[in-house]
């Protein structure tokens, strides 16, 4: 792909992805067990619609769509940053243990210390943060190479999974309440949940804009970045911590939703290239659109059962990711 083709694709994506997000957001608000037309949705927003429609739209669907958007945006941003830091397109918060750390902290808050459940977003971020620091410390040996970080992350991920399973066995009488959360889903998410996660998610997404320049410099390689005066190890650690904040914000409300941080940045990279000036914003918008669309399908197409969005994303994401790998010639 030459420079002109890549520039055209970037411009096209910059126009198409926001329009796609608006379309799937409206679809998520209008479509469900009770489907509404564009006019009926508009009457709700102008406070001229019937109370029943207002309750469906404003109390149920709008907060759920907004939570889905923030969840997808955070996971995609975390995945894009980690893939750049690790120099590995397979890096993802779920693979290297960051999501597992946030998930373990959240599970402990829900079944071991339920009195702390109001601190769920903060505890999920703290769990992801501690996990990231431990992984980085284990990988450190006069520097922390991407390969060492990934290997340490995989080991920590397995350990945290064992601890999580142990807690579920120990507190088997309380497990039923967290099973939907473990599968990853947005069922019952309300304005309360949005207020819960919004400060962490918005802060992380805002900081990710400041991460564009260091992420681009790290793509040049450690030696080249150091020659340009960059503190490579410090920047790598800060980007990993930022990814932890983003993953923790998503995990705290949506549960263990996978594949978003893996597939979306990789797909955007294939279309728009490695430049984080385009890759990161497009991944954020694309991740938001993917989660909202998947959640709408999960709650609408399997009526009367509401399928957790995490299960649907795993079922659809794995074949799609294999297709991307095949197209790129990796497999």
Low-confidence stretches are none
Number of helices: 14
Q: Tell me the major beta sheet.
A: none
**What is the CA-atom radius of gyration, in angstroms?**
20 Å
Mean pLDDT: 83
Q: Work out the number of β strands.
A: 0
Q: End-to-end span in angstroms?
A: 21 Å
Give the quaternary arrangement of the chains.
single chain
Helices and strands in order:
Layout: H1 3-30, H2 38-45, H3 51-86, H4 98-112, H5 120-139, H6 146-170, H7 179-183, H8 191-210, H9 212-218, H10 222-227, H11 232-254, H12 260-272, H13 276-300, H14 309-328
Written description of the protein model:
Helix 4 runs parallel beside helix 6 (146-170). With 331 residues, the protein is an all-alpha fold. The protein is built from 14 helices and no strands. Helix content is 76%, strand content 0%.
Brief synopsis:
Helix content is 76%, strand content 0%. The chain has 14 helices and no strands.
Characteristic key phrases:
single chain; 331 residues; mainly alpha; globular
């Amino acid at each position: 792909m030459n420079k002109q083709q890549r520039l055209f694709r970037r411009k096209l994506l910059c126009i198409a992805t926001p329009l796609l997000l608006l379309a799937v957001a409206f679809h998520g608000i209008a479509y469900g067990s009770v489907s509404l037309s564009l006019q009926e949705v508009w009457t709700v927003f102008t406070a001229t619609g019937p109370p029943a429609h207002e309750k469906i739209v404003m109390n149920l669907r709008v907060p759920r769509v907004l939570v889905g958007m923030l969840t997808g945006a955070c996971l995609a941003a975390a995945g894009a940053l980690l893939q750049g830091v690790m120099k590995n397109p397979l890096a993802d918060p779920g693979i290297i243990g960051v999501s597992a750390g946030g998930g373990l902290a959240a599970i402990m808050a829900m079944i071991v210390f339920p009195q702390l459940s109001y601190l769920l977003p903060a505890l999920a971020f703290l769990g992801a943060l501690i996990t990231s620091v431990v992984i980085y410390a284990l990988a450190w040996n006069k520097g922390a190479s991407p390969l060492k970080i990934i290997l340490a992350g995989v080991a920590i991920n397995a350990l945290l999974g064992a601890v999580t399973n142990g807690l579920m066995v120990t507190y088997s009488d309380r497990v039923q309440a967290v099973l939907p959360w473990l599968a990853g889903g947005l069922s019952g998410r309300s304005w309360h949940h949005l207020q819960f996660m919004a400060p962490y998610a918005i802060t992380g997404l805002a900081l990710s804009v400041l991460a564009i320049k260091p992420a681009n410099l790290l793509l040049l390689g450690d030696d080249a970045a150091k020659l340009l005066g960059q503190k490579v190890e410090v920047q790598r650690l800060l980007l990993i911590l930022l990814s932890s904040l983003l993953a923790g914000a998503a995990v705290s409300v949506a549960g263990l939703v996978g594949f978003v941080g893996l597939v979306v940045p990789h797909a955007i990279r294939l279309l728009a290239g490695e430049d984080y000036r385009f890759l990161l914003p497009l991944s954020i918008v694309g991740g938001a659109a993917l989660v909202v669309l998947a959640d709408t399908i999960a709650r609408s197409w399997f009526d009367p059962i509401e399928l957790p969005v995490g299960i649907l994303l795993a079922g659809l994401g794995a074949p799609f990711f294999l297709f991307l790998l095949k197209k790129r010639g990796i497999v």
